[in-house]
Specification:
The protein has nine helices and 13 strands. It is an alpha/beta fold. It has a single domain, classed as Vaccinia Virus protein VP39 (Rossmann fold, 3-Layer(aba) Sandwich). The strands form four sheets. A seven-stranded mixed β-sheet has the order 3-2-1-4-5-13-10, sandwiched between helices. Helix 1 runs parallel beside helix 5. The chain is globular. Bound molecules: S-adenosylmethionine (SAM). S-adenosylmethionine binds next to helix 1.
Length: about 270
């Protein structure tokens, strides 16, 4: 097994355990178990009509958004993630919520074989694609999961934001805009992003930054047509320590700092 894949899976397994017992409120567990939704206002306003749609949620983590999509009216929901702990937690939440959902453990690159079906909506949000080394391969997987007329909804941290680090109160350009496949960014971090004080043990993980043009071109080259590309001033994790709350578990740059796009969203359709 690829060393980077193994490290990332161990890291996410570790995080899944903490997030499934989240006490920071980041994951809105109680709300979802009560039949509500963990989606933020942003994605809820952009995903479009779910009624009668079969939805697959790639890199679904502990499945709370997957269950939310069902609560919001999807006909069926399927979540896929490569972390056994995340999938086990997702199945546990589905049982506790009494929500019908299918959860599959697999590498996202193997999604077509692992899922064996086609969908009306592929849903991918907040912190998914930087864990993947090949955005063009990912887009081909997405296209293969869609029926004709099916849509992709992608919402992610902005590549421009991802290039920056906060140093001595200033945002500094720290990372290249394009991470080579064979030279990923390497992190050793003992805390997860929710603010949970409990420590991770599998601290090593690897990430890849993808230029926005690569993401858009990957989607087009995979055969989808772009319906919208939006850029937003909020993100849903504390990407920099001095971000300020922007309501609904979202964060924005502090007043006085020049605005940059903090996230972006793409809607795309498989026409044939
Ligand atoms: C930040 S979380 C995504 C959060 C998600 N938007 C949600 O609904 O909570 C990233 C997820 O990607 C998963 N992941 C990372 N690499 C993967 C891969 N190659 N195949 C499948 N899942 C992967 C991790 O296990 C983790 O659950």
């Amino acid at each position: 097994m690829d060393e980077r894949f193994a490290a990332n899976r161990a890291n996410w397994d570790d995080r899944a355990g903490l997030h499934a017992t989240d006490t920071t409120g980041s994951y809105r567990i109680g709300k979802v178990l009560a039949g509500g939704s963990s989606l933020h206002a942003l994605e809820a306003s952009e995903i479009g009509d779910l009624a009668g749609r079969d939805v697959v949620h790639l890199q679904c983590h502990i499945g709370l958004d997957t269950l939310s999509l069902k609560h919001l009216g999807a006909r069926s929901v399927t979540g896929l993630d490569f972390s056994p702990n995340a999938i086990a937690a997702a199945r546990g939440f589905a049982a506790r919520a009494g929500t019908e959902a299918r959860f599959v453990e697999a590498d996202v690159y193997d999604a077509a074989e692992a899922l064996g079906g086609r969908y009306d909506l592929v849903f991918v949000t907040w912190g998914a694609i930087t864990w993947l080394d090949d955005i063009f391969r990912w887009a081909r997987v997405v296209a293969s999961l869609l029926r004709p007329g099916g849509r992709l909804y992608l919402l992610e941290g902005h590549p421009q934001m991802n290039q920056l680090e906060l140093r001595d109160g200033h945002l500094e350009l720290e990372f290249d805009w394009r991470t080579p496949r064979d030279a990923p960014l390497v992190w050793d971090v003992a805390e997860t992003y929710t603010g949970d004080a409990r420590r991770l043990t599998a601290t090593r993980c690897y990430e890849w930054l993808h230029p926005l043009s690569d993401i858009v071109n990957a989607i087009i080259r995979a055969g989808l047509s772009i319906d919208f590309l939006n850029e937003h001033e909020i993100v849903v994790w504390k990407a920099f320590a001095d971000l300020v709350p922007a309501g609904d578990n979202q964060f924005a740059l502090p007043p006085g700092r020049p605005r940059i796009p903090m996230s972006f969203s793409i809607g795309a359709t498989r026409r044939t």
